[in-house]
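Data deposition worksheet. Section B asks for the primary sequence of the deposited chain exactly as it was used as input, without tags or linkers unless they were present during the calculation. Section C holds the resulting structure in token form. Section D is free text for depositor observations; keep each observation to a single sentence. Incomplete worksheets are returned to the depositor.
Section A, Depositor: J.P.
Section B:
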Amino acid sequence: MTSAPTRFGPDTGTWHLDPLHSSLIFVAHYLRFGRVQGAFGQAEGQVRVAQDPTRSSVEVVIDAASLNTGVNARDAHLRSADFLDVDHHPRIRFTSTGVEPVRRQNSFRLHGDLELHGTTVPVVLNSEWVGEAPDLGSPDDTHGHFFSATTQISLADFGVGDGGGTPWGGRIVGDTVDIVLEVRLQNQDPAPFLAQIGHTP
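Section C:
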């Protein structure tokens, strides 16, 4: 008889992405030799944890216009039709399709579909449950769990432009982008508090 995998992380039920204490980071090659890091600041999502963890599900929606690399002119260009075209594709969505246990303790592969720039491509997130802690502001009723995850995507797979070539070879933006996620999930819906402080997902 096969039993369900050993549980770690959140209890069964619905958990909510805490956008204030999560980092949705991307790192891209720039002008062939450089590396530029940015993040998306607006996102909402839910994780439904099943009794059998491999049957859990994840859905996250990111506001593509919330991209931030720290340079306003560059951010405006990345939002434009040359790259993400956020006017026509305002949302980035990840929907899980499966959870795959791995040998390393507290780790798993999260399979899912990533919708970006109007195109959906399967991706695999190499993920790890890091730990848990009560909320600092309301420890009696809010509890959080922390996860890390990484993957790589190809911009060409999603039809995202690369800005063209450079005189010294390579493209303005490299095709391969690293995704690094540091995520906090909490048992309380953060929407009321986010509205109170003016943080709109």
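Section D:
The first strand starts at residue 13 and ends at 17.
The chain has a mean pLDDT of 92.
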